[in-house]
Amino acid sequence: MSAVFTGIGVAAPTGIGTEEHWAATLAGRCAIDRITAFDPASYPVRLAGETRGFDPAEHMGRKLRNQTDHMTHLAVAGAGMALADAGVDLESVGEFERGVVAANSSGGVAFGQRELQKLWSHGPAHVSAYMSVAWFYAATAGQLSIRHGLRGPCMVTASEQAGGLDAVGHARRQVRRGTRLVLTGGTDASVSPVGLSFEIATGLLSTEPAPDRAFVPFDARARGYVPGDGGAILVMEDEAAARERGAPRIYGRLAGYAATFDPPDPRAPARRAPFDPPSAPAAPRLRRAAEKALADAGLAPDDIGAVFADAYGVPELDLAESRAVEAVFGPGGVPVTAPKTLTGRLSAGGSALDLATALLALRDGVIPPTANVDRLAPGVTVDLVREPRPAPLRAVLVLARGYGGFNAAAVVTR
């Protein structure tokens, strides 16, 4: 049973709406800038990729806005756009034959911080009753289920940047078990005082103040990543059911998926990244995830037209990913791109957005560029795409790594 993507909804720093995002991506318009959600002057990291111009009132009523966090606002907007794009009448799909598998990593940190500040300043009577659920990772999946009557499987994946790919992998499993339609993908919104503090504590964020130099994965100047908010929601359907209902378009098929895990080094210092690559410089488990995804798709490395890299922006992690790609495809054996240089890393929303962008690349036959990278770091051997590159793409590999040791890989085909 084949699982295909029939709708895409994007709410990202590069645009609210799929075509706006795609146009900005192809043009290489960097959306990283000084944080506006709060005053970052006292923080060592002052840049982020924010969904500027996003108005939740255009996508949902006041009641739902007040009950939920920004992460859920982004997902509700993305889901509405994806369903409209898919041209599906949900009433024609049995309520137990439609489900949702969404990814989230940071939870509703902005909502939670606001309510805790009310508790501290004014007392418990001023705290919203929705504090009990709005902060939770599964709030987005639950709200999408309620809003669209998705009474089939309802799940959340929480594996940070890998979560978006893990979500679509689990969604495909549900389609294969008989669910006709699944909303999937992921969004995150960690650009808040508490959320930023959590990420600063990892020691992996870039403190470079210039937006065009702050996040440059694979570059000799790379010193860390920039955070961001946003993501993408996609409509996945059983291919036969999609064709039977006359779906306006099929963007592509999830042909392969795999996940692996890098356990933390117990000898590592407590504040060291739990998957710091000196203990595994060739990233063997990321390589294994890529190989298993290719095997799941029944494809050889030569069948892949492009790789959408995880692209951490941390020198050791970039080198490890380069070596993993080289081990699968050979030195410079496949074009590699990292359009997230325009947005920053969006946690669970990042790989979902990469997957959506990969589907658009398949649709239009062009590999989007990696912005702002000037000189590859020593040892990095990937064929990094720095300008839009036309290509007759038939299959694309998307890679993702989540903080804590999560690896995921997905193959999408025409």
Automatic annotation (TrEMBL):
Entry protein name: Act minimal PKS chain-length factor (CLF/KS beta)
Lineage of the organism: Bacteria, Bacillati, Actinomycetota, Actinomycetes, Streptosporangiales
EC number: 2.3.1.-
Record keywords, A-Z: Acyltransferase, Transferase
Region Disordered, residue ranges: 262-283
Pfam families to which the protein is assigned, alphabetical: ketoacyl-synt (PF00109), Ketoacyl-synt_C (PF02801)
Top-tier EC class: transferase
GO molecular function (one): 3-oxoacyl-[acyl-carrier-protein] synthase activity
Organism: Streptomonospora nanhaiensis
Every Ketosynthase family 3 (KS3) domain range: 1-414
Family: Belongs to the thiolase-like superfamily. Beta-ketoacyl-ACP synthases family.
One Gene Ontology biological process: fatty acid biosynthetic process
